[in-house]
Write a structure and sequence with these properties.
- This protein is mainly α.
- The protein is built from 1 helix and no strands.
- It has a domain at 27-66.
- It is 79% helix and 0% strand.
- The model has no long low-confidence stretch (mean pLDDT 85).
Amino acid sequence: MKNFSQPKAEERFARIRNKNQDKSAFKQAVKEREKADTEREAKILRLRALRLAKEAADKAAADQATADEKAARPRKTVPPDTESSS
């Protein structure tokens, strides 16, 4: 009779090796996903900072334009009341 344990042992070894390869492939995929998430979060933070800086610059420019407009307006003066000065 032949010994059939050798092929079964090889099958078990192949299954274990495949599981280990699957685990390492999974770990690599998780690392890549985390790296992509980190890059996306960094991009979002940069864009948010740029947006906030632009909004602050726009607000400062609007405030300056309003101040310039107010300064350019002629002031209303009250004409002297001729009747009350007599």
